[in-house]
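Let us begin with a simple case.
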Amino acid sequence: MDKLTIISRKSVLAKIQAQEVSEVIKNKFPEIKINFKTKDTSGDIDLTTPLHKMPEIGVFTSDIRGELLTEKADIAVHSWKDLPVDLEEGTELAATIERADLRDVLIFKKGSFKKKKLEIFTSSPRRQENLSKFLLKAIPFEVDSLSFSDVRGNILTRVQKLEDSNADGLVIAKAAIDRLLFPKVGITGELDSFKKNLEKFLWMVIPCSQNPCAPGQGALAIEVKSGNKRVIELLNEINDLDVFKNVEEEREKLKKYGGGCHQKIGVSIENHSLGKIITEKGLTPDNELIDKRSFLPFKKEFSKFENPIKDFYPKLKKDFKLFFRSMINDGTKEIEDIKNAGLYISRASSIETGTAIDLSNVIWTSGIENWFKLARKGIWVNGTSDGLGEEQSKPESILKKVNWFLVSHIASESKDKKLIATYELVPEKDIEDLSKYSHFYWMSISSFKEALKRFPSIKNAEHSCGLGKTFDELNKLYPNKIKPFLNYEDWLEKVNEAK
């Protein structure tokens, strides 16, 4: 095969996606000459009808599909989330490549900070349903009313519409922003003004636990005419099977609720080094609230307890108290002086109420509870590791590189961040006898080490923790003996089931 024609939509983003696929093909088959075609679709031409009122079947894909059927193009590259759950006969999805970020991003006007009435642009019923709950907790000021308005056009157009309107924010796929800001292929020009525009806004990356993605979001679908054996064989060589399987499962899960992009439900499957995290959240057509999040470990031994459960610790999360915190004023002052940097905050209690953090900084939390606590302290949070661990879900700035600081206790260690210590952990003098417990859930390595020092016999107990840094540290001490769970609540449920 000496040449290949790739077709996509006409937007800058669609062209970047087509070129990303072409680069993967050329890396495997450098001798192939690749040509590009673009085509407007009915969804591109009609920019007035809200997406959720347009036909369900392929408003962004059917016109391109026709080019495959007439053999005017060999493959079509789509944003997978634009494809209907059920494809029409005549073409098939043959492959995909490495997936970009699954999550959504809120772009927010700095001038709207502390407004009582907020209007957010999005045409997605899924985003409206899930964000109507999340944003009221995540935004660091009191909001009296939160409304959503439809917006159409490509990403560049939508950002410009936000700037020109009275609306306060816009929700878009993070994968789109990443591809436009940092294209892996040489497309520039009209993206320069887009980058400058984004710098005017605040932003937050919305975690999958609160707002799972549209099935396939961030993934690229490569469509081909059924029976086109030579192209299908070529695509088999570049297909990312893990991504393909995850997206197919996301689409199947949505399908059981009865639809696609008109649904008020998100479904995401996130890869983790220890397994997969599956989230389904939203409202079904029958007005049933769905809120499911589960962890499927790769190792079977992680999914069940080995020893009989005699008693467990802690019974309640608030009972987990082996230390009290002694605040360090110098650390708080250092934080207030920092600008244009990244602050990774593992615990909201490390920031005292009233601490003035400059809005030029990027704030990242270890989990969603800490995000909400910081928001109540008036701090704009940009994103979270969502309880999956700093290494798994790295803190980032979507616009530019920043130097990162770890805000934590004075004995904390970080491989790549300078420590700002705002408190010291002081062991409680009197704690209960932990030697009587057979099963433990640890929320920090510091607590485990302190408990082990006082009650050496707990070494022989069965130990569990979350999916992040605590697991890594405990697993170094007791390789393959630590049970990872999604969170404390997940562990407690499994403990009660096993009793």
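The second case is a distinct protein. As before, the sequence precedes its structure tokens.
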Amino acid sequence: MSKGTSIDALTRIGQDIVESIMAGRFPVFDIPDRRTGNIIFDTDEQEYVIGPTSVRRDSSNIRHVKSFAQLVWVASFAKELLKNNRTSSLRDLYYSSEAFDIEFADQAESDRIVGDLECLTGLPREEFGIFPEERSSIFGRVTMQYTVKGYEGKTVDLTISPDGLPIGPALMTAEPLDCKAELILAVESGGMFSRLIETRAWERFNAVLVQLGGQPPRATRRLIRRLHKTLDLPVYIFTDGDPWGMHIARVIMSGSANSAHIRELTVPTAKWMGVTADDIVSYSLPSEPMTNADLKRLDELKNDVRYNSSEWLHHINAFKDIRMKAEQQAFSRYGIDYVVDTYLADKLP
């Protein structure tokens, strides 16, 4: 998506407001409804989508005036970012509002208004230069070309730093030029990411390594999808062996209800390779008992439409049977390189 397209979308919001006022009407916004009742799981696409219902923000309604004004300000803030070639974190946007006497109760409220802007324009916040705090990294034999102003045409080799490169706005929008990798291996923890770089697992398995940092931000999911689509790289996901790790993988595959209004975030063909409950048993991994919260989460997943296949139900039931969980690092009981020499060698194609 070009910057001009994003600016045009924001400009139209202002034009619609002015035209309404000039015609003697109170401006209104009709925004796709993001409430649970209007979020539908598309079984063909294997992801959540927004249904047909909209909600109206009417500036003539005293109850809507505050959220209407907040949305107009966020749109204005986003346009200024684009015009000045700047980016902002969601946190920075929240604090910036104070300079304009725009009152948000907390950052959660300002984040919701950013989501409203996405729904109103049909564009993700990243197209407006608004990002969460980065906490993911990438490493592998891929050369990317930057597209951000001031760096257009410059390239970067994703093996340039032994710590990996942070997945920020510039890298998320860069274009892949050359690739010697054959797959993407997304791992949950920073410790495992570092271990795979140190042991040159990326070289052994011809893998692009992505550190997810827990549940990955949308910029990371978008970059994984683009590399998957552009370079035709299969995606494998390696997380802790618990319900939370499973869900990290499933969100990469099928998205989340919170992002149902945003397209091009998912990789339905991605594979969760573990740590599964079966792995905990077959590898005799050090583990600990599941908490009540873990067991409750398994019940929630069992009732989640994203987990209704026989494969996922097997994983859930296996965890419920053993009532134990294990971290990725548990393989170190057999030696510091065991996870690469044995586990990944067994799991990856």
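The chain has a mean pLDDT of 90. The chain is about 40% helix and 15% strand.
Keep these points in mind for the review questions at the end of the chapter.
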